[in-house]
Amino acid sequence: MIFKAVGDKRPYPDHGHITPKDWASVPPRQVRLAELVTTKAQLDLEALLAEDSTFFGDLFPHVVQWRDTLYLEDGLHRAVRTALHQRTILHARVLVIDD
Predict the structure, then answer these.
(1) Cα(62)–Cα(75) distance, rounded to whole angstroms?
(2) pLDDT tens, 31-46?
(3) Measured distance CA(90)–CA(56) in Å, rounded
(4) I want to staple 41 with a disulfide (CB 3.0 to 4.6 A). Which of 8, 35, 57, 75 is the partner?
């Protein structure tokens, strides 16, 4: 199993981080793929195979930590690419939400 679980929605409350500029203030850190719960059940194959998939967006995937669970909000294609390269850790911006 690559991820802890595969989800299809964001169970956490709205956090207001929408644009890459909003996320830029969140420092990246290492995250184990096995600790992530996805918020998308389907992967866009074009995003996975695109050579310039990070050209217009953030270099780091976006993860939300809520109630001790790490949710992969954006960057599923980067996480799958990491797994395909047989790596178990990726660098991601992790936003912690306290409720």
Answers:
(1) 6
(2) 999 999 999 999 877 7
(3) 19
(4) 8
